[in-house]
## 1
Amino acid sequence: MTGSCIDARVGSRGSNLRQVNELNFPGFRGYPALAGTAMALALATLSGCGGDKGGAAKGRNGGQQQTPTVGFVTVQPTDAPIVTELAARTTAFESSDVRPQVTGVIRRRFFTEGTLVKRGQPLYEIDPRLYRASVNQAAANLQSAQANAEATRTLAERYRPLAQIEAISKQDYTNAQASARQAAAQVAQTRAALETARVNLQFTTVPAPITGRIGRSLFTVGALVSSGQTDPLAQIQRLDPIFVDIQQSATDLLSLRRNLAARDGLIPASANVSLRLEDGTDYGQTGTVQFAEAVVDPQTGTVTLRARFPNPQGLLLPGMFVRARFAQAIDTSAYLVPQQAVSRDPKGNATLFIVGPNDKVQQKKVKAERTQGAYWVVTDGLKPGDKIVTQGLANLRPGQSVRAVPANSPQKVQPPSPEQLKKMQAAKGKAG
């Protein structure tokens, strides 16, 4: 019986058995006994092909080893991102404390805790009566200063012609001019005092400094507050977008930068980041790295990378722990090799078989330090166009001759020959 003996997976005969079970030889319809005998013979032949149990299959010539069939894939260099997954914590995009800037008693609160507030929206009202009185007093002082300035200016103007004809002394004229200038300065001072009083009166209404979601109020109506107090009245946080602070080891970052400078084909990647939440689910939105700090934390030995994420539904809250996954570089000269093709020797070196000249297999040592999905990322030891053996690896030896076909080629199981049919009929007659 001749035919291909390629395992669909390494060393597995399950696909062979399925194909034998599905045989429907035209000559056996209506002869179940002969069909069962033919199937048994086919199974025996398939089990011997490939040498799974103690040796290679023997052909009809008796003793001549049959050439094993292997499946291969041809590899070419491709782009393989260097993906990193690190611990991270969410941080509000903007955060602001609501603080009083004047001293007084809170009369009213204008917001509901936990709601979204807009920048400039009134939040609290502090008793404004004292500050309104200060405004009125400053306005009166300004009027008095303006009247005094008008009188001194007029007096100085009248002294000018008299001083020219020496009807009065020049000193009197000089004193009159100085008094007019002092009165003008007094007007400016009282005007500034009036502006200050008006600003303080405005501070009696406490507005929202930013747009965001406001938390609980730490002070109630009737509480006395001051501009120098430690605790804020409330806190507002902007959560859309939101920041994610990623902690990366300074050693890993240094190694990456050295590889970027030393290795050809290794280029920086656009830092798109995906998140995995605390419950193990994916966040669904993609963020981007904004910057990396230029300082290493002396306590943890890490560098902080900050990423920005959209958060339209408010799913991410400040302080949450997440896992950030992103590509820091792309290796443009790597090879993606199916994982079943790579094995490890006793020293831990990665090895694989390739189909060499004259259809003889060769064993090569390669550098495969990481995986990407169902593939090993091989960065050294291969050339473009190498044929990597991925199927039929059982009992392969370096230098062995093989019949190489593309991986996952369909297997062909032929019906028995006339001579085999005669032997099967004779065996059936003896058994009967």
## 2
Amino acid sequence: MTAVQNRSGKIAVTVTPTQARHIATAIRVDLMTRWEPHWITSFAHRDEFNAARSLLDERADELEMLQWGEPAGDVDLLLERQRLSELALSLREGGEECTATRNGAIAESGEVRRQGEAMIATARAIDQALAGA
């Protein structure tokens, strides 16, 4: 993973297809956790719709850059340093949850554990790219 800071203050991070898939998953989870159930109801107000639209627009742009986690090759993700740090943290936390042990026993299946390890590796790669930018 490589990173280059541009004039706008954003950082371009080149990610592999596997990394893009993990980052897209983290973005979707983040979107789900920030979604307010009262936004889309028959009683929703303009402010609630605007908040929902803003969140969707922001995350949709990120997912588009990642080709919704299904790129044919490496892709460039252009984001603010803070947002990249947030994504790395989400990946690390999700990966740790997948690889955690409960009462001395592995909590998840081998495949889930491997995905958790890949998520942690992606978080580390983002952190290293940010350190070099």
